[in-house]
Design a protein that fits this description.
six-stranded parallel beta sheet, Rossmann fold, 11 helices, 2 domains, alpha/beta
């Protein structure tokens, strides 16, 4: 694969390559238990977030927050097996890496938590330092996505990405997917993308991972949908 043809795949972390729901459910149950209530997975799923469940049980939000803040650390939850990789994650990453893909991660989280997840599951062997973290209070991953791709383009440690190189954004949420358009526009119009090994512009694509068979959001009508990462190498690979 020549430099000009090299492809990039950018993965969301939670809900895409990492199954963080067991930790979330365990943390929610523990918080309610400390408040004197026993809740189950069905109750959690039926409500719109844990605040909805707290409201249904007539628990004040501030009281719930006090107990939820006592939740396990990510480090402990990972050690307890409450945040495993999905079974299709490693085969997908290994397949794409063997095809010469540049792999990266783009997540909305706390940088410390992200490092703990990456380190515990030894994902550095795939992503290296190509990891970008969006603050949890931001609505869009746009800024971090653009900077991530720019960094990959000028990195001396990869062969770089060139004009027309395809970049795929894979995730389970709308924001993970539609950021592809933001990066395309930036690469096409931003002079900063033209330094080093990078030549404006690149081709971007978003792929929605719909593991649970949810109704497709209108914002994703123009994007491809997959049900498992096992489908990905055949779709975007060579």
């Amino acid at each position: 694969m020549t430099n000009k043809q090299r492809k990039v795949a950018v993965f969301d972390i939670d809900g895409t390559i990492l199954d963080s729901m067991p930790k979330m459910r365990a943390d929610i149950k523990s918080a309610f238990r400390r408040l004197g209530y026993t809740v189950n997975d069905e109750q959690i799923a039926q409500q719109k977030g844990w605040y909805g469940l707290a409201e249904a049980l007539e628990i004040k939000r501030e009281n719930y927050d006090l107990e939820f803040d006592k939740r396990k650390s990510w480090e402990q939850s990972l050690a307890d097996g409450e945040a495993p990789l999905f079974m299709d994650t490693l085969p997908c990453l290994e397949d794409l890496a063997s095809q010469g893909f540049i792999l990266a991660a783009l997540t909305k989280s706390d940088p410390k938590y992200t490092k703990e997840k990456i380190d515990y599951h030894k994902l550095n062997r795939f992503f290296g330092d190509r990891i970008a973290v969006t603050p949890v209070d931001q609505k869009s991953k746009k800024v971090e996505a653009i900077e991530l791709i720019r960094r990959i383009g000028v990195s001396p440690y990869v062969s770089g990405i060139k004009k027309g190189s395809p970049v795929y954004f894979i995730g389970d949420r709308v924001e993970d997917v539609i950021v592809a358009e933001d990066v395309y526009k930036a690469s096409y119009s931003n002079p900063g993308f033209q330094d080093g090994l990078f030549e404006s512009y690149i081709m971007t694509n978003g792929i929605w991972l719909n593991r649970e068979g949810k109704s497709q959001p209108q914002e994703l009508n123009d994007y491809r949908t997959i049900k498992s990462l096992a489908e990905l190498p055949a779709i975007i690979g060579t």
